[in-house]
Amino acid sequence: MRLQGKRALVTGASRGIGKSIALNLAKEGAEVVVNYRSQENEAQQVVDQIKNMGSRGLAVQGSTHILNNVKAIVQTSLDFLGKIDILVNNAGILTRTAFLEIPEEEWNAIVETNLTGYFLMGQAVASSMVENAVCGSIVNVSSVLQSVTAPNLTHYSVSKAGVGMLTKQMALELAPKKIRVNAVAPGLISTDMNSKDLEKLEFRDSVLNDIPLNIIGQPEDITGSVVFLCSNKEARLITGTTIFIDGGRSLK
């Protein structure tokens, strides 16, 4: 119960890594708002699981790259929780398209969701933390692709590289406010986002060849590091750091 009494908001938490993070924050004692964009039933199922753990949970719909939605998500979360101690920016999208074939609309959708959404949500929640004198923790879910390349993922990799620097800038400017900002950078994780790709044997073998531990991760592999970074007791001196959880992919 390392997060007993803490109140958390997790974006993109209806499935995959976000779902796993939300459930483990609740397992550690936090009350959790589960943000989702379109998967209402799945989000409510996560909330039901949180309640079954004896904690409080609420599902809140909204797109994190649209400012009016962000304001509504944060206000609804504050109305429910009273304050926000923890923000996990996780909402993201991924498409695989060759660099020469990426249309502007696809580029904008990736960057707006994966980077602009983190900025808008981070700014809004950090403002509430300052207003409520909260010594908060913000964790941005990035990707190993913030620092290495991969075919057909230019827009995604660039958006995650932006998350890496956004994390450092937020950490620098929010440190005087006693708000810590860190990131986790997963490698290849088996989720709904890439399940169809992983079903292709050729793709699976090619990506495994780039992972020294030769392991495809699960969402649960990410949550321990997130819980650790959210703990003001265990991680009180850690800010501006990215933890790579990638089976060694970043070594290459």
* Total beta strand runs: 7
Q: What oligomeric assembly is this protein in?
A: single chain
Give the percentage of residues in beta strands.
5-15%
Give the N-terminus to C-terminus distance in angstroms: 37 Å
Main β-sheet description: 7 strands, parallel
Q: List the strand order in the largest sheet.
A: 3-2-1-4-5-6-7
Number of helices: 8
Principal-axes shape call? globular
- In the predicted model, the low-confidence regions spanning at least 5 consecutive residues are none
Provide the succession of SSEs. Answer: EHEHEHEHEHEHHHE
Question: Quick check: average pLDDT?
Answer: 96
- Helix/strand-derived category reads alpha/beta
Task: Name the helicity range.
Answer: 40-55%
Round the Cα radius of gyration to an integer and report it: 17 Å
Task: Report on this structure.
This protein is of the alpha/beta class and 252 residues long. It has helices spanning 16-27, 40-52, 67-81, 104-131, 154-174, 195-198, 201-208, 220-230; strands at residues 7-10, 31-36, 57-61, 86-89, 137-141, 180-186, 242-245. The chain has a seven-stranded parallel sheet with strand order 3-2-1-4-5-6-7, with helices on both faces. It is globular.
List keywords for this structure.
7 strands, seven-stranded parallel beta sheet, globular, alpha/beta, 8 helices, 252 residues
